[in-house]
Design goal:
The protein is an alpha/beta fold. The chain has 8 helices and 7 strands.
Length: about 220
Amino acid sequence: MSRRVVALVAARDEGGRVGPCVTGLRTLATEVVVVDDGSRDATASEALEAGATVIRRDRSRGKGGALEAALDRVEPAEVWLLADADLGSSAAGLAPLIERIGPDAADLAIAVLPPSSGGGFGIVRRAAGRAIRALSGFEAAAPLSGQRALSAEAMRAVRPLARGFGVETAMTIDAVRAGMRVEEIPIDGLAHRITRKDVRGFAHRGRQGLDIGVALALRVVGRR
């Protein structure tokens, strides 16, 4: 492998999915790092058994905080690959993101997943897309996609990462504002757990919307 590629996975209670995800990512990355963000199941042991470097946090600090914890402790990479644990074995399909990062290509490559049935009403996704367009001018087809590859320069430009679930929306805005080349790449075969229209699903979207709102407010007033 000519470049050092580090895959980062923030995971909480992803037992049964994080192991296959790590296995898939190991075919793409020099090192796979899983941050166990206060899990109450076997996430950490499953990731370790699959070959990941595991960073454990006693209590959840949210997705953005979990990724920052990894960035503070892992050796620098030429390419950073961010992936959600619930991709399972389909994480092996993220190779096009890594391949797209380079001097004559993209600084930040974002995966557009295939359409899926079920899920919510798309309110948070549409709001995030409109905010990205308003604050950066970028038309995002997948504003909430957690599957991303970044050059070392792009990662420096978007840190510190936004808190919680605001990390993706804020990252796109910050990258565009910093003059980074941002591309979205449709990738067939990727699949993740659907957040459904139930109490748990709506609670998740509420937390997601709140975190995105905080990240956007900071960027409106010129703070990170």
